[in-house]
Specification:
Blueprint lengths: L40 E2 L2 E2 L3 H10 L2 H15 E2 L3 E2 L3 H12 L7 H13 L2 H8 L10 H14 L4 H5 L4 H14 L2
Antiparallel strand pairs: 1-2, 3-4
Helix pairs in contact: 1-2, 1-3, 3-4, 3-6, 4-6, 4-8
Length: 181
């Protein structure tokens, strides 16, 4: 079987190291403007709604945050296993939000990260239909980049595994199992 090239078309990912404390910086989502959201796609088209949804997850009450996270999930990881071009660029912000105690839907964010880390849909399709690898916008590359983005921030799991919120700790444990940490 052919393998997908490792280049990612038109994405500048701002995947920076998590601070050594394992806690997100004091200004949440400050790097959102560094991502060219208009130039990358989610399941609906240009990923321009992703920053707004991330802000709603960060600052909304439980109902608002949950609805925003569900919308975001539909855009970057449909059905819990189909990633999009914008997924890898979104992952660092999900990690950041998962570490903020004031965010009301942290367990759901961690479960979304687990889904992304476990996604193999496009690779499975390419195994049966190798012509998929010839497309200019290669979803196999998107999937691999998204998994790499989740792995790049796995150091944050140390803190999440011992979180006082039991649901956060359990979700973090499940993610750790997928990442084999």
């Amino acid at each position: 079987m052919r393998t997908a090239p490792t280049e990612q078309p038109s994405i500048q990912c701002t995947d920076q190291e998590t601070p050594s404390t394992g806690v997100a910086g004091s200004t949440p989502l400050s790097a959102l403007g560094q991502v060219p959201w208009r130039d990358i796609r989610d399941s609906t088209g240009p990923a321009t709604a992703v920053p707004l949804l991330l802000h709603r997850v960060a600052s909304g009450d439980a109902e608002t945050a949950g609805a925003a996270l569900e919308d975001l999930r539909q855009r970057i990881c449909q059905y819990g296993f189909v990633v999009e071009q914008a997924t890898a660029a979104t992952v660092p912000f999900l990690w950041e939000l998962a570490q903020l105690p004031r965010v009301t839907c942290r367990p759901q964010i961690i479960r979304l990260l687990r889904n992304i880390a476990d996604a193999r849909q496009w690779e499975s399709v390419a195994a049966v239909y190798p012509k998929l690898l010839n497309h200019r916008e290669n979803p196999v590359v998107w999937e691999r980049r998204a998994r790499q983005a989740v792995r790049a921030r796995r150091g944050a799991l140390r803190t999440l595994l011992t979180d006082q919120d039991r649901e956060v700790a359990v979700s973090a444990s499940e993610l750790a199992d997928v990442l084999a940490v």
